[in-house]
Amino acid sequence: MSSGGASHGRLPSRTRNADRTTTQQAYNVPSPNEVVMDTGDYVGVDNDPEKDPIAIINPDNSEPEGDQLQDLPLANDYEAMKELVLPPLVDEPKILEDAYYTWTVDNWRERPKKEHGPVFMAGGYPWRILLFPHGNAVDQVSIYLEHGFEADKVPENWSCCVQFGLVLWNPNDPSLYCHTAAHHRFTKEDGDWGFTRFVELRRMYNVPWERGSRPLCENDTANITAYLRLVEDETGVLWHNFANYDSKKETGFVGLKNQGATCYLNSLLQSLYFTNSFRKAVYEIPTENDRSMQNSAYTLQRLFYQLQTSDQAVGTNELTKSFGWETRHIFEQQDVQELSRKLMERLEAKMKGTKAENVLPEMFSGKVKTYISCINVDYESSRIEDFWDIQLNVSGNRTLLDSFTDYIQVEKLEGENQYFAGEEYKLQDANKGVIFTSFPDVLHLQLKRFEYDIQRDMMMKINDRYEFPEVFDAAPYLSQDSDKSEPWTYQLHGVLVHSGDLNAGHYYAFLKPEKEGWFYRYDDDKVTKATMREVLEENFGGEYRTPNGYPRAPLQKKAPIMRQNSAYMLVYIRQSRLDKILCPVSEEDTPKHLQQRFEEEMALKEARRREQKEAHLYMFVKVITDATFRNYGGTDLTVFDGDHASDPSAPFTYRLRRAMTVGEFIAFFAAETGQDPKRLRPWLMVNRQNKTVRPDQPIMDLAPTLEEVSTKAATRDAYLRFWVEQAEDVDEEGNAVWPSYATQPNGAPTKGDTILLLLKHFDAEEQTLRGVGHVYISKDKKVEELVPLILQKMGWEGKLAPEEKLLLWEEIKPSMIDPMKAKQTLKGAELQDGDIVCFQRTSERKVDAASATDKPLQEPYATQRVQSCPHELTIGRIHRPNDRFEDAREYYDFLENKRVVRFVAHPRSEGTEFDPFELVLNSKINYDTLSERVGAHLGVPSTHIRFWTVNGATDKPKVPVRRSTNPSLRQILQPTGVISTNQRSDAFYLEILDISLAEFDTKKIVKLIWLSEGITKEDHYDLLVPKSGTLEDVIQALIKKAQIPDETEGGRIRLYETSSNRVYREPPRDSPVLNLSDYTQLYAERVPEEELAAEDSYFIQVFHFQNEVNRTHGVPFKFLLIEGEKFADTKKRLEKRTGLKGKSFEKIKFALVRRASYSKPQYLNDDDELWNVASSEDDYLGLDHADRTRSMRNGAGDLFLR
């Protein structure tokens, strides 16, 4: 049988030697028949208007691999072959129907390049085989399965999930065949899938075919059987490629965008959001008077509101910024449990004093009792503590219930380990353990998937299989006297999943938003329905399991595959409180000010969208006038990037219609500035070749549009620039009389020989440069004839002293200021419209000096910056002989090279702090001159100043500036030859040293922490000691710097180094300072009196940890052991030794920790004797309590919420 052609398309392909491959997998988990695809198009087939895209998949191997595990069926035994070619799927979807169809292909070699087999029905849909008998651009047979709908009759939104196998076999000998299988979601857009490299053509005709005596294709004939297994798409996303997937449309919910590595944050936030009563409590926090983006409660409200109302995935940038996180926190995976606790602490603080004050403890906090109960007498020692989550061991437990049983396991204290029950009962047999007295309505269970591996000396992820139920009864884990008036049955609400290993992985969550209904998978910005298998079985961890009832396929003799994804946090809700916790949250529950703010923001976004849509109709126009020029004190005519609202010398900036005529623009500008439009004339400003911007010529014809003017000017700028002139004279009718470019009766403007010059005045007395205005003068006149015009403009007629003269300069460009010759004509001086002439008053004796063109420019001295307007620099002079600029050229040179530099005290400056200040400096000055200027400003010796560059990303000190080469200020702030310095070019940190910088270079900086009150108070010092010194010098430097009594008066001082929050060593006092490691922390403390005469062997090292001994924190220290002392008395000494008091000390649990078994702390009782328990030098005393600094387990740095 044969069938006419359809089309070819771009198809995925499976091949062992593909040049370009990607991986196609089943949804959530890889299929046993993983498909590798390429993007090659079909070639050698005529383009057909009916052609459809075709998927290409190649078999991984079409022949048996290794030993044959069982007898293979014959190809015409269809039921047996179905079991062979359709192996069980990991997804375990429900099977709707199995079908098969055989197509006999004769005259194989005479077939065209592409053939369609007959249409057959399966699952109520038409299907057919697509064959490339001579290969689809390869030297192998290509076979595909495709739907059989006519091209224009595929139902809209049609999809069908099919597992299929294709078998090519010899009709005369059914034992000769090859086969392969795949699965695919067939849709209107993706209607075919198959195998480009099914079998090599040359092998089809080989004699014999493997394990036989005949060829696979005999007498030019072979059979192709297609096996189809149609499965239920329960969630609507089985094997979905998620192209153009809309979470809101498909599920009613939206996801959260991943900022970089914030998937762990997203999974936690979604879990909290769908704890509806928590969401309502967050809305209760009063934020109407603190709507700052620094307020984490407000940004969380905004996030929840957007999740509630948005149609697209929501960003978390506002929230993380309110936490105070920097970019590095965004791209580092953090600890979810720690983040959850910190967020709860912060919100609980925000809720104090509101009606939601007790909501969080009531919702998330339970109580647990730690006890020691005597068996034979009525005596019990116990304490009850609050908990917000429970950490359960995964290792060694198969199920959640096993972990709870393990958690409350009772330890027998008997024999030599009897409990001392006070003087009345003495030593007694006792039970020691923990028991819960209440559970919260929302139970957060942290599964300890990450544990310290002593063999590898590192944290490892535990991938063991660990089952958890959809519903469980927590009553067996409660104390007998607990309130059991209502059931303690808990229902699964959320599963937070980690996929990957310790160092790299991905987080997502399965959550059940409503009491009845589906679980959904929240994977960053994508939300999909999830089956209970996906929620439970696929997150138990362990190896992939073959479904019950399905034997392993005969050709799949492979090692077990371990799951990379497993649950690490579970959320259960007490069944009797489900209605309360999952209460509806409506728009009325959201704060009104929040709704109003978002409405305003949406309106603003819509306005911006419209503005962007209409942007092509508008252009920006910048306008300067004589008024702006008179306020300007820099080079050229203005700074075009300035804002006129805050700087009167900056141009007026307007967004105007491109179709506006010049006449309409003049009328508009006149109305804006309160002027007569008849007296205004715009000059087009152009970029000159010397990179200045000057008026070029006036626009006399007011009819063209602004766009036509811009096009004619051929400007590349993003805006049009005008200098608008105001006429000084008018005729009898009130029309302007223009000195140049007069309009003739025929309407054509005439240029004439009059030119426009712009004037600037350099005031040598005030040390200022200002625009004055403009004048017109004939090009044939001499330079000296400008003087009367200038005197008239300035009102100086008859006011110059006899010895005073005017010096004139032409500002060609900022770095080229040329003196003008009095007797030269303006034409000879090559002046033209828009040129700038600068003048200054000076005495005759200075004229000769100024006219010496070869006079070198003196180096301007630094000056303090006093700002009256952004472009006027008023100089507060330092009292030095050369701190003035005597002529304009010197001042222009200063303007060209000036830098406004900010100076800030170094964070470690003590006793020498000063307010930040700015100096205007010449970038040509060298290091020594810079030191002199700063020293003069601060009134300190310049030799004692040390400068630090500033990190551009963090604004923190970067590196000290090296004086050795005496570099210029420009070289320091902008190093040459460095591609990226990440350094600010306008600021320094500086410290004022107690010694000269030269002497400082002979010292070593020793960073030390002084413990003045046990371990509770840390004073940080940077001590300067000679590089040739010893630790004795460090102690003397500490005494001087900290101003503490010396050792004779205050007692002996101990120095010790720590690493990873454990004592590293106590170096001898005569040890050289150069032996101190840069990778350890140095501590100093007074030696307690009781320890002064003690031997080293009597001490034990003490460190702090939180729950797990590898999560160290705090200040470690040495502690003296006393023989025969009960631990109850030892704790009293520890309280005094540490300085911890009250609840801070009471919350500490004490444990003996052996180096050989860090993960197994041995917790101590009051009657234990530490002297006896600590039997080895490798034993540590561990203080188990909360880490207030929250140092991260993975070394990523401190996680904090602002």
Automatic annotation (TrEMBL):
Sequence ranges assigned to domain MATH in this UniProt record: 98-228
Origin: domain of life: Eukaryota
Domain USP: 254-575
CDD domains: peptidase_C19C
Keywords, alphabetical: Hydrolase, Nucleus, Protease, Thiol protease, Ubl conjugation pathway
Compartment(s): Nucleus
Name of this protein: ubiquitinyl hydrolase 1
Organism per entry: Hapsidospora chrysogenum (strain ATCC 11550 / CBS 779.69 / DSM 880 / IAM 14645 / JCM 23072 / IMI 49137)
